Amino acid sequence: MSPFVIIVLGALLMAGMLWLKALPPHRRGPAVIKLVILSLIAALVILTVTGRIHWIGALFAGVFLLYKKYGFLLKAIPFLGKLFKSHAKAKQPPSPNNQHMQRTEALKVLGLEEGCSDEEIILAHRKLMQKFHPDHGGNSYLAAQLNEARACLLKR
């Protein structure tokens, strides 16, 4: 590999590390995955341009295409099926309760007391949702509980 390519790759690696360091901790996991994928793509491009990707690259490309088309067959293998099921369970949001939230429980969730106004309910919901929204590092279960509490108290 030429020294120019090595310098460019080193500079890109340093830029990626500085970018990761600047991110908030709850966003570093997905960012690392993006950085690894971009690094693999860059490595494949370099190997292709320099003519060093041979039958191994073709093998990986073939396996990838077969997985895209016939990936459902892997679920038939018991061991891999268990892995897929555990991975799918982790991604599924919690199922909602069939029971409706009681007023006292809704007040506890939002941290309010009996006799509060609609504006106080909306303000408390907004404040807590900013902390616990899934897009801001919270989880979907807590956000659903907050929404259900607000709806219960406002009778929507």
TrEMBL record:
Transmembrane segments annotated in the record for this chain: 36-67
Keyword annotations of the record: Chaperone, Membrane, Transmembrane, Transmembrane helix
Membrane topology per record: Single-pass membrane protein
Coiled coil stretches, renumbered: none
Compartments (UniProt record): Membrane
Domain of life per record: Bacteria
Stretches assigned to the J domain: 105-156
CDD domains: DnaJ
InterPro entries: DnaJ_domain, J_dom_sf
Main subcellular localisation: membrane
Entry GO terms, CC: membrane
Family: Belongs to the TIM14 family.
Record-given protein name: Molecular chaperone DnaJ
Organism: Neptunomonas concharum
